[in-house]
Amino acid sequence: MTGLFSEVFLSALLFGAVTAAIPLLLAGLGEQMSEKAGVLNIGIEGMMLAGAYLGFVGAFYSGSLWLGFLTGAGGGVAVALVMALLCVRIGLNQIVIGIALTLGLEGLTALLHHFQFSRSYPRLRAVDVTVIPLLSDIPVIGPALFRQHLIVYLAVALVFAMGYIYRRTQLGLNLQAAGDKPAALDVAGIDVVRTRTVAVLTTGALAGLGGAYLANVGAGLFIPFITNGAGFLGIVLAMLARGRPVWVLFGALLFGVCLSLTTAMQVAGINIPTDVIQMLPFLAVMVMLVLFGRRASLPAALGIPYERGAR
Amino acid sequence: KSIAILTPEEGTDYGWNQQGIDAAKAAAKAAGVEIVVAQGLGYGDVRPTLRELAADGASLLIAHASGYNTSAPEIAKETKVPVAIVDTPTGLEKGLVADYTLSGHEGAYLAGRLAAKMSRSKSVGIVVSGEPPSWNSQSAAFAQGVKAESPDVKVTYAVIGPAAYSDAAGGKRVTESVIASGADIIFGQGNGSSFGMLQAVETTKAGDGGKVYFIDVIGDKTPIDKGFLLSSVVWNIEPVYAAMIADLKADTFGTKSYSIGLKDDSVKLLKTAAIPDNIWAEIQALREDVISGKTKVDPVYDAAAVRALMTSVAQ
Amino acid sequence: MSIDTAPAAGATALDATAAVATRRDIQHRLLMTLGPILAALIIAGCILLAVGVDPLAYYGFVLKRGLLSPLGIQQTLTRMAPLLFLAAGLIVAFRAGMWNLGGDGQFLLGAVTAAASAPVLVEVMPAWLALICSFVIAMLVAMIWSLVPALLRAYQGVNEIITTLMMTFLGTSLANVLVKLMFRDPGTTVPQTRTLPVEDRLPRLFDTTITSGLLLGLVAIITVHLVMTRTAFGLKLRIVGANPRAAIHAGLGVPKLTIAVFAISAGLAGLAGAVDILGVQGNVRADWNPAYGLAVIPVVFLARMNGFAAIGFVFLLSVLSIGGESAARRLGVPNHFTLVLVSIVLIVLALAEYIDHRYNQSRKA
Amino acid sequence: MSVAKRDIVALEGVTKRFPGVVANDSVDLEIRPGEVHVLLGENGAGKSTLIGMLSGLQQPDEGRILVDGEPTAITSPRHALALGIGTVFQHMMLVPTLTVAENLLLGGPWWQRPKTEELEARVAEITRTLGITVKLHAKVSELSLGEQQQVEILRAMVRNSRLLILDESTSMLTPKGIDELGALMRRLVEQGLAIVFITHKLKEAAAFGDRISVLKLGRKVGEIPPERFRALGEQAIISEIVELMFGKQKDDPEAAERPVRTIRAEAAPLLEVRDLAVAPTDDAPGLSSISFDICPGELLGIAGIDGNGQKHLAEALAGQRATVGGSVRLQGTPIEALSVGERRQKGLRYLTDDRLGEGTVGTFPVSINFFLKQVGAAPFWRKGVEQRAEIDKRAAQLVREYDVRTPSLKTPVARLSGGNIQKVLLARELAEGAKVVIFNKPTYGLDLSNTLASRQRIRDTAARGLAVLLISTDLEELLSMCDRIAVISNGSLVGTVENADDARTKVGRLMIGLAA
Ligand SMILES: Nc1ncnc2c1ncn2[C@@H]1O[C@H](COP(=O)(O)OP(=O)(O)OP(=O)(O)O)[C@@H](O)[C@H]1O
Ligand SMILES: Nc1ncnc2c1ncn2[C@@H]1O[C@H](COP(=O)(O)OP(=O)(O)OP(=O)(O)O)[C@@H](O)[C@H]1O
Ligand SMILES: [Mg+2]
Ligand SMILES: [Mg+2]
After folding, report:
1. Where are the alpha helices (DSSP H) in A223-311?
2. Which residues are listed as membrane-spanning (chain C) (predicted)?
3. Contact A33/A203 with Cβ under 8 angstroms?
4. Which of B88, D65, D310, D503 has its CA 20 to 30 A from that of D191?
């Protein structure tokens, strides 16, 4: 089998794994922030779709990928704004609104695509990569990991930035308090609603960015339902990661690698039904849960709207 | 008098749905009947739509998806309105159910020959988003064509994933991997995800630094091509629908299966500027051989069989 | 996410004033449901206008095709059957405080096993018995599928949102594998299970095309409602849901109840799959996933986990999806618009409930 | 009025309404530096609501609040903090998953790194003057309730409050802790702070206060200004308060005599516990070799500082917590292997200290909460089907018998006042078939009249010949009721004392680790 796998191919596989992992990573990091602050954000799939659509529109009409990422993040924020308004400010049920937003954006983006692109199917140019000197010369790993678009490095850097925020800043304390005991945060003089709103909007920005990456870099185009459940995977990753950004990264990479493994096995001509291979990442996670499935430490106030002085 | 066609997705995909709808429109126009298009119905339950169309007076319901071949005959019996279904040659019923099994395998075989002739790297790839029978038969025939042309040419087969019809990112990712494994011609089948494949072809260089070419199926993506489309196995379903309408009028509906093939150009290979004339001439000669029966191409519909075949031709 | 106990109260009211109050309450409820729907239709109408479609014509078709025409209403009622089972399953889980988000996986596995067993069984036994056996098999398979999340939650405290989501991804894949590799109909090239003949399926009601699965669904959801509100078992589950620590304090076997909740909830989802197959579809095709579960979840919340209210909302959802499909076709809007419509209706209903609640509070103060 | 003693905060005609209740009804109040202003009143009198408005959690519906003489709308907790109003709330307001230091740091500008060093220095300074120690780097969830309360007081200090509000802050403290808190308050007012101190214990009010205001049903019904306060002795103050609160003259109501009961010495113990052991958890030490007997009609008290294993003991006896050794016999039959329900069947009852957390289901009607531990039992359920008429009948009976004040049987139990919720629990646990009853802090958070009523219930229980285990952190309560008092410390019983004249000192010695 080794003969089959040229260096170029292996590195393409790894590259593919990273490309598939980045949207999951961004969605997972975003969801993690909401959950930390006590908001179960089921609408993240809708935020990703909004990001994918607007991100593509931005990149396509401006010709600039960066502008695309910006509009994509903006799209996610716009949806998050609705969520923040309805679920954080006035305290509607987060699951109802989350699912409704996801359904609505599935429909809306498909509708817009139909009227706008369903005849022309525009596609973007190839993505410019930033080559990291020296590191990119490492065989196999180099081209896969160190010849990526700048946003990929930024996304990975974000993991560590988030870790820093959570552990070392007042904002991190605020977020954790908002999720574990919002009343305590409130009497400490920090507005819980504002803190949670910030968290939800950040989620929207990250999910939107993830969607934009998926459309602009992952696919190079937009089609309806392009996210294919990536948002829900993000929720799972965030919950598995127990508040640690690094674990979101690991989880996202696991999924990406499993996807590439599927391709690798097929190219190697191993005759296993794809449906079976496709179950691999989920099976892996389930096995992990069964083996190490200690109590997932979710924030105590997760899913519960905060109202000052309510009893 | 009117006929109705039902498709799972919108008829703007330069593929299965669009070819079906365009053909039905053309056939209806030629026959002077009205046409009702019900598109984007999804792969769920179409019985409500079938019943409604029947109640609205359609005299033929074309259920243009293999997913509809259980519900449509049932509704035909219930409402006594004739239906046409796909991929079910055994389901014929006089006056009620006709089958049209569309397989472009003959065309795919030619595409395989073409790809083998044109591949610089002696390596071609097949990327599919799922494994429905009509795609399987083309994947298999394509591989057979490649091997018939030159046993040295490597064929790589990759499925994006189950129900990955809209996974454009997956299409791009898998296609890029296949290109990295050496392929410089991609035979791609997928609905939404085929645009991802196209994108991969357009943005990835082959191993020798040259262009990678794409061979499409069913529809004609020339209008949106950026110069990477090598060919397409184009299906023209209009003759099938025309024959159905004729049979309906002649009271012979439901007595035969309809199909498409190279013979009447209902399956044909698209000629693009990327194909040199001499190679195109050779392909045309091969086409004659297939039509005359000198070359036999048997369709393989089963996914497991296709994968077994791919394993055997991979090396 | 509090569990509402209102239906438990108020039921003993029998005297005249209470009857008047109840009637006013029902009127109020109706107003608070129809009002928001109207508002949602107006908002969605603006989107229609924006894409150049006459909203009145659109809604006209929705009403006509989903509700008022004999054909339309029959389709609507038929569509309700699996949704009712799913809603019943979710009511059990949500009232017991367990977020079973794995309905789609359980539904599909139930559907596949029902589709695999029924055509075989009808050949060896009377059709009615075969149907019953298939229902039981579907239910059991779905129950077994829920065992992993149930055990993890009951004995390890692993959050069930993660596990049920994972199991639904897995279940969808597994259902495909089963269809393609194990239960495939050898008689066709299309990857699907064998087809249960129309005459062996669940009988239709009277002379219509409405499946008797509708009745089963109604029975299921009403039974669930009564069990949850009127029996000791239902009360135990509600205690677990409302305050798990109180359940332990009161000596309830929380782990066992947890497993029971998952089993019942998943079993009902499995039955939902079976009723769709045995009543309507007749077989399962590869890659088939109607994803009903996702739309039913908010519906159950909006109904405040009340079975009767859920019936109403499921009806609404069916009207919108059947009528919307038809209207979209006639006016050249992509079918996806139905999703937008449903989403807006859900959001506006949730908002209306909030405003109503606020209004009541300020009136009391 | 002297210039130096200008009000820091004054309330003028403040009214606050909630759905169905007027929590504060045009209340006037002056809060001055250098004074401990004690707020008294029954449960629900509106004390905490008043505090809520001072700390920015709520806004008055009518009236105004003056800060330094200026009418000020205190719009948010942040605003209150900025005005120098620091509050220790009745309910714990710490984030359990953060460390003490992090909790103290909460509230800083969001973009900054927490200023840990600065905090440490400041805390060191404050704790030195206050004479307390805190574990800055321990997680709050690992602290005992008493320690948590200290952290909250510390937090108010760290923020440089000019006005410190303590809402029932002594409820979790030991007698020694209470005295220390009293001394601390004294030092603080001497430094020029103003303090508002809320308590249900009249002795504390008399001992620590300078000025007393009494609330009743949301109205201020009386005030004892400092001049009068100093003029009166403790007894006089208490009887004046009692008159204000209850309107009838009565001497120190808590000093009810312990009725002399005779326990037949030869009677076999109803409950025998031998060498009971429980594994430790995050928030409490494990139990080791706990042994004691209780005879019919006997009232055994368990004294000790909160968090020394009392809850584990109660839960292990009730069957809610797994044991790792030892035996429990009820009327001679071993019950350690039985489940919660089976033990209840045998007559073992456990009245939890966590009324809303585990004792009741807050959203369920009062009627159902009477039968939470009997779900499925006849005659309230037949063949598993709820018999609503039977339930309502019996519930109505219990409501009458135990004087539960509830608008209706259908009212969600969480809407009731703490005292009334406690009555529901008492009714549930003492209903037919009880033989051994464990009371865990039965009067915690209750006002005077409810406390007295509950204590009477407990005495009556023992008088009926039941064995009673009374766990309490309130030494006075134990001394006034028990036959014997055992002291628990760090998970084991360090001694048992007959409740005779010198019991107070003996128990006190045991509690601080000396031999009796
Ligand atoms: N959220 C609420 N909504 C409506 N009424 C309430 C609410 N909370 C409390 N009440 C009512 O206010 C009254 C007093 O409640 P609170 O909890 O303050 O009582 P309490 O004074 O502690 O009682 P007790 O003296 O018996 O301990 C109760 O009779 C209750 O019915
Ligand atoms: N957020 C709220 N919503 C509704 N009612 C409330 C609310 N907060 C307080 N109340 C009601 O206002 C009244 C006063 O309550 P408050 O908590 O101020 O009493 P309290 O004097 O502090 O009693 P306790 O001694 O039990 O602490 C009670 O009847 C209570 O039920
Ligand atoms: Mg109270
Ligand atoms: Mg209070």
Report:
1. 230-240, 245-267, 274-278, 280-292
2. 37-59, 80-99, 129-155, 161-183, 204-228, 259-280, 292-317, 337-355
3. yes
4. D65
3-state secondary structure labels for all residues of B4-66? EEECCCCCCCCCHHHHHHHHHHHHHHHHCCEEEEECCCCCCCCHHHHHHHHHCCCCEEEECCH
pLDDT reading at C107 higher than 80: yes
Does residue D336 line the site of ligand 1, with CB under 6 A?
no
Mean pLDDT, residues B173-191: 90
Which residues does residue D62 pair with via DSSP β-bridges, in sequence order?
D15
Domain extent for C300? 82-309
Question: Do residues D340 and D319 make contact, with C-beta atoms less than 8 angstroms apart?
Answer: yes
Tell me the fold of A2-295. ABC transporter involved in vitamin B12 uptake, BtuC (1.10.3470)
If one counts every other C-beta atom within 10 angstroms of the C-beta of residue A142, the result is 18
- Asked if D459 and D439 touch (Cβ cutoff 8 Å), the reply is no
Q: How distant is the Cα of A25 from the closest Cα of chain C, in angstroms?
A: 17
Q: Do D420 and D437 lie in a common domain?
A: no
- For chain D, the domain total comes to 3
**Cβ–ligand 1 contact at D419 (below 6 Å):** yes
Range of the domain at D396: 354-432
Nearest listed ligand to the Cα of residue D420: 1
Could you report the per-residue pLDDT of C77-96, keeping only the tens digit for each? 988 999 999 999 999 999 99
Ligand 4 centroid–CA D309 distance in Å is: 27
Q: Are D132 and D101 in contact (CB under 8 A)?
A: no
Residue nearest to atom 30 of ligand 2 (CA): D44
**Average pLDDT for C339-364:** 84
Residue C17 has pLDDT above 70, yes or no: no
Same domain, D413 and D464: no
pLDDT digits (tens, 9 = 90+) for C270-279: 999 999 999 8
Residues D451 and D394 in one domain: no
Q: Does residue D319 belong to any structural domain of this protein? A: yes
What residues does each domain of chain A span?
Answer: 2-295
Q: Measure D55 CA to ligand 4 centroid, in angstroms.
A: 14
Record: contact B43-C288, CB cut-off 8 A: yes
CA–CA separation, A32 and A38 (whole Å): 10
Average pLDDT, chain C: 86
**Res A79: pLDDT:** 96
Tokens of D304: 């000790």
Q: What is the mean pLDDT of residues B144-157?
A: 90
**Which H or E run contains B221?**
none
Tell me which residue of D138, D156, D131, D126 sits closest to D101, measured CA to CA: D138
pLDDT digit string (tens) for B17-69? 899 999 999 999 998 889 999 888 888 888 888 988 998 888 899 999 888 88
How many CB atoms are located within 10 Å of the residue C50 CB?
10
D176 and D307 part of one domain: no
**Looking at the 3D structure of chain C, how many domains does it have?**
1
CA distance B209 to B286: 31
Contact partners, residue D21, CB within 8 Å, separation at least 6: D44, D218
Q: Is the pLDDT of residue C364 over 70?
A: no
Interface pTM (ipTM) of the complex? 0.86
Residues having CB closer than 6 A to ligand 2 are: A 309-311; D 18, 21, 23, 41, 43-49, 90, 418, 447
- Among D414, D432, D450, the domain boundary falls at D432
Closest to C339 (Cα-Cα) out of C288, C298, C287, C281: C298
What CATH number did the domain enclosing D278 receive?
3.40.50.300
Assigned token pair, B137? 């038969």
Say if residue D172 is in the same domain as residue D83.
yes
- From the CA of D44, give the closest atom in ligand 1: 21
C294 falls within a domain: yes
- Measured CA distances, D363 to C166, D424, D429 (Å): 32, 14, 20
Q: Is the peptide bond before D379 cis (omega within 30 degrees of 0)?
A: yes
Over range B73-81, report the average pLDDT: 90
